């Protein structure tokens, strides 16, 4: 019998199938990292929509799983040694799923080289691209002082150039498609799409990132993952 009912979050988001991995998320740039990964590796899972715009990630039930109040988070009832495991932080979840399935994370030295790009996304790309969204599209666009927007836009342009240089002569960040690509696809897509910052960050002046993004978005698993959890 599954131990899933012992997790308080299941009171608000009940599991239809408590024997499979449970995903608590929304299809934001951080959220789709995990849904894309799950679609890529073919692991059975059950998605639960967490409406962050309605502060559902700050409810008692969600905070019992992630005290930081952010999506995504998972519970895997078949974790290490057969015991359930609860995890938050998208980068940690990507590494966990790669290790669990033996997919999309190479071995040896390349394992750590792949992870450095995941951590680069988590520590730099996500925070700066997110601030561009705030100051360019959301409440911050009304601020008279445009220096914060310029600061975050300039740094985002620099980060894109770092990625562009890495992709020179490569189809994927690590030559083979990996969790490094998965961690970045949603953020780059959002920056030039949902955040309307394509011109602001001079995206079309890049030599390699646009084609990389197009390749990534063409993958069937990526297309599916970008829509999960469904808001319908």
UniProtKB/TrEMBL annotation:
Domain (GST C-terminal) ranges: 107-232
One Pfam entry name: GST_N
Residues annotated as domain GST N-terminal: 18-105
Protein name (Swiss-Prot/TrEMBL): Glutathione S-transferase N-terminal domain-containing protein
Organism whose genome encodes this protein: Sphingomonas daechungensis
């Amino acid at each position: 019998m599954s131990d899933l009912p012992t997790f308080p979050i299941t009171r608000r988001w009940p599991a239809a199938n408590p024997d499979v991995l449970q995903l608590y998320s929304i299809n934001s740039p951080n959220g789709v990292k995990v849904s894309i990964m799950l679609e890529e590796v073919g692991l059975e899972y059950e998605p639960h929509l967490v409406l962050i715009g309605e502060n559902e990630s700050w409810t008692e039930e969600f905070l019992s799983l992630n005290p930081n109040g952010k999506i995504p988070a998972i519970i895997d009832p078949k974790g290490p040694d057969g015991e359930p495991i609860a995890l938050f932080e998208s980068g940690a979840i990507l590494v966990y799923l790669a290790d669990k399935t033996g997919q999309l994370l190479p071995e040896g030295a390349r394992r750590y080289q792949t992870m450095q790009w995941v951590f680069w996304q988590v520590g730099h790309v996500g925070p700066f691209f997110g601030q561009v969204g705030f100051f360019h599209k959301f409440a911050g666009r009304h601020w008279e002082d445009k220096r914060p927007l310029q600061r975050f836009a300039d740094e985002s342009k620099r980060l894109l150039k770092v990625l562009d240089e890495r992709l020179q002569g490569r189809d994927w960040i690590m030559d083979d498609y990996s969790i490094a690509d998965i961690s970045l696809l949603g953020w780059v897509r959002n920056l030039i799409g949902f955040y309307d910052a394509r011109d602001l960050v001079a995206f079309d002046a890049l030599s390699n990132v646009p084609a990389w993004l197009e390749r990534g978005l063409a993958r069937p698993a990526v297309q599916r993952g970008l829509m999960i959890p469904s808001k319908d």
